Amino acid sequence: MKHVQIFSLGLGLVLCGACASKPAVTSEGLALKRVVIYRNGVAYFEREGRVTGSKVSFRVRRDEVGDFLASFAVMEKAGGSVRAASFPMRREEPPVRLAEGEKPLPVPPVDPKRKLENVVMELDGGEHDLAVGYIAEAPVWRPSYRLVLQKDKVHLQVWGIVQNLSGEDWKNTHLTVVADAPLALQTNLENAVIPSRPVLAEGNEVIMVVPQSETSLASAPPPPPAPAVAMPEEMADEEAVSEKTMEVEKKEGRARPTSKSVQRSARYRGGVGGLTRAVAPAAPKPMVAPSRTRNLAALAAVAVTGGATRYELPNPVTVPDGSATMLLLLDKEVPGESAFLFAPDPGVPDSAAHPFRVARFRNATGGLLERGPLAFFGEGGFLGQGVIENLPVAASATVPFALEQSLAIERRSEYIEEGSRLFMVDGGQLTIERQVGPRTTYKIKNGAKEARKLWLKHPRQGGSKLLAPPRDTEDNAGTGSALVPVAIGALAAVEAVLNERIGQQQQVDWLSDLAEQAVKGYLADAKANPVKVAALKAAWELRAEWKKLADESERLHAEQQNLERSSEETRDNLRAIEKNKAAEDLRKTLTHRLAKSSARLDQVIKRLIEVDMRIKELELRFREAVKELRIPPAT
Questions:
Q1: What does DSSP say about strands 142-149 and 372-378: parallel, antiparallel, or unpaired?
Q2: Is the pTM of this model over 0.90?
Q3: Separation of first and last alpha carbons in the chain
């Protein structure tokens, strides 16, 4: 089989719809250095720079003022003080008085994406080495995947499509995309809110009820800010190793981040009114690109932070405003195979009898793979496309991309009820549990001259257990299905039988065969309560005699019906030949038969009376014996 080589391309796509927008936030002296894009419609922006003086001004787009004020954070390296941040309030203009018959002039609507507000941050003077962070509205980044199918392995590429509609170019910006959607609220902090108050009427009477005040006792003052933390020795060691690695990779022609970008791993954190300096943990090392992408810059480092997967590009990138950029985030060989999947889909009628061609692979990337399109390559070219759903770390995906006509499958199902187990005895009632569920048979025929590996996507009955499934079966409770592997030889036919069972409780009569099977099983169970066993065993001896007489009564009733029917027929025959003197011999035979039947009928009726009386007695004795018996539900 030929190996497919995928060449990585930088892709820029102009989005003219954003050309007229102003940047969400700008500030002279604070350049954009970092952008983190999430999957919820917002992005985190970070600006850095050295400013002098007691004020820093920001120009904030009107529709972004709320997000800016709600998420505005200041991180200062020198430990200075930020005093306040202020912005002008918009006042409602009074209505214009018009003369009689005069029409108001049309007022053009104000585009909030072009109108800017001025936000001023007050400092304590001097020089400040600042980093300012905030969130603003941004398009979600979207993943796109490539999968190269080889004989016993697959090669996975992860691309990220980033759209810049911010109103400014992201020049030499450290870019991170996060496979997560943290809660981000829309706020209107820029709008004045004046709540209603109780009205004090004349005579000092309060019209509205005034809520009672609440007193809180004083508490201990907050702890002092934490002292500066020196860089850990481990980080120094990692930088030393990084320098050596750069020298080796320089000889091999592989690009690595500059030492300046490595030094940015020491970041500063703080807050208004009480800044502290801290050193963040070292950023994860970029993953070494596979040989098929040796000529590219280092790929994104994959890390899982707080349960969210982050792809962080180690080198700065430039994303022009009003454009979309396609970034290669990961290129890695992962465990997988090419196979076939029988999963009937109403949208594909032929899939009711033929399986799909699929690729199966395990997520060995170290992070979550979000839902996105997947293109397949192999056998010297393009094979098809599919979609993967959210795939956690170490989970496996089975993605269809074509239909295979050389495999034919027939499915048949029947409902099975079997077994009887004592579930509960309460109030003289017996409840048993039976195992019920479908038995599904798949008949598979392979018309190709090569062996095939097939996976059956078997719909599962909720709450049931799959009995003795084939080895390597994947029972996926979350999707309500099971993936069952089937190996089939060339030009061969096989059968796969799947049994599902679930316990079903039902009340039964004490004299039934199901009751006898359940009670005998309980009495023979070594784990059963011995006191309950003894009580039930004593009652069961009464039930045995009762059952024996009940069976006799049933036989006697059947015999009685047969005798009565035979006697009636004999009487009819005698009436038919009553005046026929030639049938005297027949009349004697019928008369003898009628007498014999009548005599036996009298015996049966007499025995029935005795048996029924004894049955009623035994039934009463048995029910009294089990009336107070309590056997809790079986687990």
A1: parallel
A2: no
A3: 55
